[in-house]
Design brief:
The chain has about 200 residues and is α/β, with parallel strands linked by helices. Helices cover about 30% and strands about 30% of the residues. It is built from 4 helices and 11 strands, in the order βαβααβββββββαββ. A hairpin with a 2-residue loop joins strand 8 and strand 9. The longest helix is centred in the first third of the chain and has 17 residues.
Length: about 200
């Protein structure tokens, strides 16, 4: 069975360090993508807040239900009637921070959620290091969800370390023909804009 054509909108952000500023930044870009005919809109990792200072970031994290960016985007999606892949929202559940990708249905409900499995830990020349695993609880399960155009697999990419995971996922997909779309959220944030 051939899937119906679908137009995707890719929203690139430079996410601010507060929820309020992040929502004000992302809403016009999602609206622009929808106005351009996008039926599935995808935002990057860290859509709701980015803050380098762990001491400031962790206390500001909210649950998915209480996060103002997630709530604002869910309401916007219900208004626009489109699908939205929130590349990730940095949230807290049961006292533990998570880097969670959310697929929002056209009625504003969360259709699927995926917690990032592969944490980004790196030691750079000169002694600088970054340990995502020190901040976030890794997920345990890959997530696949149905869309009107086929099945979508949710994942986040940190580069070479996760490519093996995606390769294994592709093999499973070929064997079972489960996924027709793979939403790979790349850990890059640059100046805002929309590609549709």
């Amino acid at each position: 069975r051939k899937a119906a054509p679908m137009k995707a909108g890719l929203v690139q952000l430079r996410t601010p360090a507060t929820h309020e500023a992040a929502l004000a930044h992302v809403v016009p870009l999602v609206r622009q993508a929808a106005a351009g005919g996008a039926q599935l809109i995808l935002t990057p990792e860290g859509t709701n807040i980015l803050q380098r200072d762990r001491e400031k970031l962790l206390p500001s994290l909210k649950s998915v239900e209480d996060d103002p960016v997630v709530g604002g985007l869910r309401a916007l999606v219900a208004e626009l009637g489109v699908w939205l892949d929130i590349g990730s929202a940095l949230v807290v559940e049961d006292g533990r921070p998570a880097n969670r990708q959310l697929l929002v249905a056209p009625d504003g409900s969360v259709a699927a959620a995926y917690d990032k499995i592969h944490m980004f830990d790196i030691d750079l020349p000169g002694g600088e290091s970054y340990r995502e695993s020190a901040n976030y609880q890794p997920g345990e399960t890959a997530v696949i969800s149905d869309l009107p155009w086929g099945r979508i697999g949710l994942t986040m990419d940190d580069g070479p370390r996760t490519r093996g995971h995606r390769r294994r996922k592709r093999r499973r997909r070929r064997r079972r023909r489960m996924v027709s779309l793979l939403a790979v959220v790349v850990s890059v944030a640059v100046v805002g804009g929309v590609i549709a």
